[in-house]
Amino acid sequence: SDDRLIIGERPASAGELARTSRWLDQIRHKAGIPFRARIESHNNFPTASGLASSASGFAALTAAAAAAAGWAAPARELSIIARMGSGSAARSMFAGLVEMHAGSRADGSDAFAEPVPAPTKFVDDLRMVVCIVGGGAPKAFASTDAMQHCAATSPLYDGWLACVPRDLAA
Questions:
Q1: CA 58 to CA 39: how far, in whole Å?
Q2: Which stretches does DSSP call E strand in the chain?
Q3: Contacts of 16 (CB under 8 A, 6+ apart)
Q4: Which letter, b or e, does each residue of 19-34 get, where b requires 16 or more Cβ atoms within 10 Å of its Cβ?
Q5: pTM of the full predicted structure?
Q6: How confident is the model at residue 110 (pLDDT cuts 50, 70, 90)?
């Protein structure tokens, strides 16, 4: 009768469950099913560390929920649904280099991601190093809240957005 969510061996908080249930309602609506879900999520990376643990979780959940519901949606639509769970989840739906498209709706509900073809040598030479500091302690603010704060208060935010097209082309 209700969704159940287990994250790393512990029952989810009421807020986590409500967020996930609201998100699952999108899949249920698209698939035309009334069923509730039991979700068990295991992550080998510190949750809430600021390195896309919620994005990878919602991307994985998007693929699993769509398959369980028998909903064979195009990749772009799955990316849009994933983004509704976590903004970066739209990008996490794909391997390799991925571009996020803002979409045309003011609320961002049509924003999606897609893989970017890149020269093989560039991809082969690309390296990233991620270091966890602070013992992987959860961050104080959710990424969405922090980004909204930056957009509302940073004098550099508009300039950053203006650089995106040039950066992508480069």
A1: 11
A2: 4-7, 10-11, 38-41, 98-101, 112-115
A3: 5, 7
A4: bbbebbebbbebbeee
A5: 0.79
A6: confident
Answer yes or no: are the C-beta atoms of 127 and 101 closer than 8 Å: no
Distance, in Å, from the CA atom of 104 to the CA atom of 89, rounded to the nearest integer, reads: 19
CA torsion sign for 78, 74, 44, 87 is negative
Residue 118 has a pLDDT of 79
Task: Please count the CA atoms within 13 angstroms of the CA of 13 that sit on its side-chain side.
Answer: 3
Amino acid at 22: R
First to last CA, the chain: 51
Within 13 A of 99's CA, how many CA atoms are on the CB side?
11
Cα–Cα distances (Å) from 137 to 45, 57, 132, 134, in that order, read 11, 18, 9, 6
Query: How much is the mean pLDDT over the chain?
Result: 86
Q: Are 103 and 111 in contact (CB under 8 A)?
A: yes
Query: Which amino acid does the sequence have at 49?
Result: S
Q: What are phi and psi of 33, to 5 degrees?
A: -125, 150
- Between strands 10-11 and 4-7, the pairing is antiparallel
- Among 97-101, 103-107, 138-142, the minimum mean pLDDT is found in 138-142
